């Protein structure tokens, strides 16, 4: 099987009935790019920049960040690279920021919420990204967006930094796409409104499932509620993809669900455009998608969305193959 997958490294990912999808990888550092290319990744769908900030005693400087972003963009040789702005808080702590302990860290002061408040940190990162933007195909993505107001504010700050850089004579790419993670139910529900203003969505199912099911993703005792195949999750995912397509935008997924062999046929049927997963899963996913028909999966969607339980969905997909 490994040998069969290895032959697919330079293939594109096209279903049996001709639907092309992009298989991208989630990375944490520039060193991870090697594995992405070796495994046939067509892009980076999620660069988790938190790692630049972790395991040290102070914030990374603009130049340090610039070097990392430039390295990833260059090593990806023009393939798309979605960089997520700082998503700290929740399970990811930064000791040197000295933030107060919270009762519910996953519902607290994290990610974009922190960046909009601590704007020095946010602006430094955005400047580093904008400066690096001419070295490849950069897309910028904001994490944990819950309201349109947050997106508009974050975008306005990005535009301000872009204007400042240009006034300083720095060349910034004019083709940077700007998107959001859809990982909070309010945003999935409002996806039709967001789709008018963003360039793309990336569905973060790790958090979307935890928030939709109200089940802490770190808590073993409630892990039975962590149900990617629950029709409630599938309906939200469908809303997001449909909303994007209605406005001519693309929708990806960068949560664990994107690389799951039961979820993949469903997501193909729902029309997902980009699947971002750990690099080691890409060839297996490609091999699977080559054998699937999008039309056949699409015809089963209505039925899947109207099932009662996650177990029923899983059984149905297993029986199909
Ligand atoms: C997610 O929430 O699905 C996601 C990809 O982000 P993270 O796992 O970093 O929270
Ligand atoms: Mg998340």
The set of bound ligands, ions and cofactors reads: phosphoenolpyruvate, magnesium ion
Estimated radius of gyration: 19 Å
Write the H/E string, N to C: HEEHEHHEHHEHEHHEHHEHEHHH
The neighbouring-strand order within the major sheet is 2-3-4-5-6-7-8-9
The global form is: globular
- Number of helical regions: 15
**Which regions have little confidence, pLDDT < 50, spanning 5+ residues?**
none
The chain-level mean pLDDT equals 96
Total number of strands: 9
Structural class by SSE content: alpha/beta
Give the percentage of residues in beta strands: 5-15%
| Helix residue percentage | 40-55%
Q: Tell me about the largest β-sheet.
A: 8 strands, parallel, barrel
Record the SSE blueprint.
Blueprint: H1 2-6, E1 13-14, E2 20-27, H2 33-38, E3 44-48, H3 50-53, H4 62-75, E4 80-84, H5 111-117, H6 119-132, E5 137-142, H7 148-167, E6 177-182, H8 185-189, H9 191-194, E7 200-203, H10 205-213, H11 231-246, E8 250-253, H12 263-270, E9 274-277, H13 282-290, H14 294-305, H15 310-320
Parallel strand pairs: 2-3, 2-9, 3-4, 4-5, 5-6, 6-7, 7-8, 8-9
Antiparallel strand pairs: 1-2
The site of magnesium ion (MG) has 4 residues, from α10.
GO molecular function: phosphoenolpyruvate-protein phosphotransferase activity
Catalytic activity: L-histidyl-[protein] + phosphoenolpyruvate = N(pros)-phospho-L-histidyl-[protein] + pyruvate
Family: Belongs to the PEP-utilizing enzyme family.
